[in-house]
Every structure is written in structure tokens, then in C-alpha cells.
Amino acid sequence: MQRRIQLVDIRIGEQVSEHYDLVTHNTMGLHCDAQHFVSVTNEDELRAALSWAQQKRLDVSAIGGGSNIIFAPTLNGLVVHMAMKGIRFEGQHVIAAAGESWQNLVDTSISNELFGLENLSLIPGTVGAAPMQNIGAYGVELADFFVSLLAMHVVTGEMHVFDRTQCGFGYRQSVFKAELKNQFIIVSVTLALESEFTPRLDYPDLQARFATSHCSARQVADAVTEIRQGKLPDPFKVGNTGSFFKNPELTPDQHRRVAGRLDGVPVHRIKDGRVKISAAALIEKVGLKGHSLKSAGVSEQHALVIVNLGEAKSAHILGLATEIMTAVESRFDIKLEIEPVRLGFTDIN
Ligand SMILES: Cc1cc2nc3c(=O)[nH]c(=O)nc-3n(C[C@H](O)[C@H](O)[C@H](O)COP(=O)(O)OP(=O)(O)OC[C@H]3O[C@@H](n4cnc5c(N)ncnc54)[C@H](O)[C@@H]3O)c2cc1C
Prior knowledge:
The chain is α+β, with helices and mostly antiparallel strands. The protein has helices at about 1-15, 45-55, 100-110, 165, 205-210, 215-230, 250-260, 280-285, 315-330; strands at about 15-20, 35-40, 60-65, 70, 75-80, 85-90, 95, 135, 140, 145-155, 160-165, 185-190, 240-245, 250, 265-270, 275, 290-295, 295-300, 305-310, 340-345. It contains nine helices and 20 strands. Helix 1 (about 1-15) crosses helix 2 (about 45-55). Flavin-adenine dinucleotide binds near residues 125, 126, 128, 136 and 240.
């Protein structure tokens, strides 16, 4: 047994890079000196990497495409890049490996005449990260099609299956960002798709494009792609993590308290009398669209997006975010919540 552990240790140890710059592993384009880094392509490599980290008493951070992470300048422990690939169909179920690109899953599902994911086109990143914040766009979210996921426990290396209820999905939320934070690494995700295409065109942008519901899944996916390309800065050209803040959700009491101040900011009724408020509109109202702090800027294209205008550091990005949050809170008495995950900051656990 001891010999096997040593062999695993040697094998994974050879693949680990030290002082690895994560700049090409995050769409914000931030430099981050990771103490140890390894890319894993299958379950055995992942288990070996976790066991290696356990032996060395290192913290572990999993990353996919880095499209929803703000890295600190340094990150202690072992960073595990999830590079497992594979998509397989079983009837209406699709099972995709964590490192598979989300966009590839959307495209492959449509090509296999299984539907439902069209509105989630062009969301950057990997399949394994999708459950973390229950990705969503244009009235659809992962939870709508989710069956289960397979995840490895960071300490024991054991595999666990989580069904939809156990994942505790909410608006950009799951149990893996809350009570099970840092405890599991997602290895694969199973979704149940639809064999008959039902367009979901409730969003005004989509309604404006389709006069009737006689359209194909590919047409809807293409329309979503075009709309997003027109609205959001391309992370391959200008560093960003998409929406930087969640749209605030208010209870009826909270809404009553702030309603007089909203000054035309759009409010959408959700459920139980709650409302969702456009964070972008709040930021525009406080006059910060286009505002910058050193090399961090509020996108001219979309006020919800913070962009890296050059060689921004995480301190500039988060400093600008604080400026925005303070301005919004003092004018509207509404607290904005940062959406991307912050890794390596000692003041955030
Ligand atoms: C231009 C742009 C547009 C975007 N639009 C949307 C949108 O419309 N809707 C939306 O919901 N999001 C959106 N996002 C955010 C982002 O695309 C999603 O959150 C995506 O799921 C992140 O995938 P990733 O592989 O890049 O994850 P990463 O950024 O690498 O990781 C995100 C989090 O998940 C964890 N993680 C990653 N992989 C695993 C794993 N296998 N197991 C356990 N934990 C893991 C990381 O530790 C981190 O906490 C957008 C981002 C950009 C840049």
C-alpha cells in the first residue's frame, strides 16, 4: 500500500508545475502565481493529485476555463485544472465530462437532436463549473435540465452522486458555493434533454427576433449567440468575467422600502411577491458606466461587466467593484453582490 502511494506521488509530482502563472487560465487576464498547478484528464489523475495535495497538506482549488474567477496575485496550495473530456448520449440523457467546453455540449446536443440548452449558448467555460453557480441566461438555467452530477471528495477521493435537490440550486447559487464549498470536485454532469424542440422566447430580445414560434433550435442558438456578441465584450479581446454583480432580488418589504428611489430602474416580478432589479440599470443611474480605476473599467458596452483595460491587477478590479457597490448602496439602499468567485484572497473564505 505504501509503495502504491509513493508511485502515485512520483507520477503526479512529475506533472505538477511550481510557481505557475495562471494568466492564460482566466478570462480577466490576471497574473496569478499559483504555488502548484496540475492539469488532469481522467479520474485516476484527479485522485492522485488530491492524494498528493493531502500528503503535502495543501489546499486544493479546481478550475475550468477561469471565466468566473478573480485571482489574487498569489494562490497557495494546488490548482487542479479540469481537462477531462467526453460527451455521451443515453436516450434523452447526456453525460458530459467536467473539462468539456459548455459550448461544445450545447452544439453537440443540438446536432444529436436533443434540445433545451439553446438559450445557454455562448456561455464561456466548462461543464464541470456549470452547476457551481447554476448557469443561466435568457430565461433558462442549468437546473431546468439537471439530473445529477458525479463529484470526488477532496479529502477522501471517494465519488459521490448528487441529484438536483442535493445540489441546492438557486439564482447563481448551489450547495458547492455554500455549505459544501471547497469539498468536492465535479467530474461529470448528467442532463435530461428534450426530444422535441420547444422554443423559449419569453425574453424581449428573443421575441423581437422571432415573430412566431416556428423556428429551429439552431436558429434560436444562433440568435442568442448574436445577441450576446452584440451586448457583451468578447473575453478573448477584452478581459472580463461576464456579469460582475448578481441582479439584486428583493422581498416585498425591501422593495417597498426602496421603491421611491428607483427612478425608472426596471423591476421584474419573480415569485412570492419578490422582485429582481437590473444591476446594470442601477450602475448606469449612478453614472458609472464607462468609469475606470487605473486599468479596470466599467464596460462602455454593458454596465454590469468590469473589463481589464490593459494590465489591471485584481486590486484595481475589486477596488472599482467597491466603488460601484458604495455608490449604488448610498443612492438606492441596495447592496450589490459580486458574482465571480475570488480565489487566493485571505480576507474572503
Ligand atoms: C463573457 C462572459 C459571459 C458570461 N455569461 C454568463 C451567463 O450568461 N450566465 C452565467 O451563468 N454565467 C456567465 N458567465 C460566467 C461563466 O461563464 C460561468 O460561471 C461558467 O460556468 C464558468 O465556467 P469555467 O469553467 O470558466 O469556471 P471557472 O471560472 O474556472 O470556475 C468557476 C468556479 O467553479 C469552480 N470549479 C470549476 N470547475 C470545477 C469543477 N469541475 N468542480 C468543482 N468546482 C469547479 C472554481 O473553483 C470556481 O469556484 C459569463 C462569463 C463571461 C466571461
